[in-house]
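To whoever picks this up:

The parser on our side crashed when reading a file containing two proteins. I've narrowed it down to the boundary between the first structure block and the second sequence. Both blocks are reproduced below exactly, byte for byte. First block:
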Amino acid sequence: MMLSNALPRGLSVAGLIILLDQLSKYWIIEKVMRPEGVDGTPFHSATRIEVLPFFDLVMAWNRGVSFGIGNSGGEWNAVILSALAVAICVGMAVWLAKAETLPLQLALGGIIGGALGNVIDRARFGAVADFLDVHVAGYHWPAFNVADSAITIGAVFLIADSLFAGRDSSKN
């Protein structure tokens, strides 16, 4: 049974992710990491604030893709990565319009929202703002943000839906 509200539901999730992502980045860039009275671009701080023994707030600018891969790219890097992300989002929106299961709709909405949240950063700053820093038992995960989390969680939902939803979801 095709859910007629698949696209609006998934795009609502995407919109919520974009809103949460951009609000969290505004808060970290403008309120937490920017010292009072400092002018200039937001590419200014390497401050680390310990929140928990395994979790810090940091300010890291990623000009590449996930985990800093391609971080040394030139000025066209942001344009190319953004265009690629938007093209993938369009394809995922087409898939979303046909999605029959709620987990698939949520997954695609999360991935689309996360990708577009990072596209907004690339358009505004030429890089993606990462600020969540997790380190446990000597292992240090690269800094990430709300959009990255939504993409990762969406990908996990996507895999779970494809593995466990049964034969009917193979139409998606």
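<<boundary where parser fails>>
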Amino acid sequence: MSSTTGFTMIEAVVTIAIGTIVIAGIVGFMIEAGRLQTFISEQSEAIETANDATTLMTEALRETIDGADGSYALEVTDDNTMTFYSDVDADASAEQIIYALVGTDIIQSITEPTDAPAEYLPENLTNKTIATGIVNGTYTGTPIFSYYDLNNAELTEPIDLAAVTLVKLHLDVNVDPNRVPDTHTIETYIQLRNLNDNL
């Protein structure tokens, strides 16, 4: 009687198939884990940038003043765009500042006034992206800016610029709304100190 040891052809094929499935599963898991890690890293960076932008916007809005050319302190008060005057560079002259949602970016535009007579000329405008991954306009539809009066009552369109004393800033951050984790929200209320008679 002859005894042979080893694998039969069927056993070898089954072993190779099982090994291939296990390896494919491990590789697939590693690829998906890498994608998730990239998303988490990008989302964390976008949240940190949005927090920095919130601080920057809060500081500028708190010190809102009339323009160097005599313009009223607030110029545009829309849901996703705000134009106002503030001395952000401490040179004793108010700059015109625009915060606007463009796609999923918040753009800060600053225009320095000319010398007397003061004017805000387009050639003096500088733009800077201060936040990315903002989905207020494209995904959540929540306004970035909401405006309130002296009694903290929300103002509706058309906004009476002279009545605005408080601004709510609301940022929804998500670098890819089709992936989890969910949208991160940053919200703060900003008193316009120079426009509020109670302060």
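After patching the parser it read the second block fine. The CA atoms of residues 49 and 131 lie 6 Å apart. The chain has two helices and eight strands.
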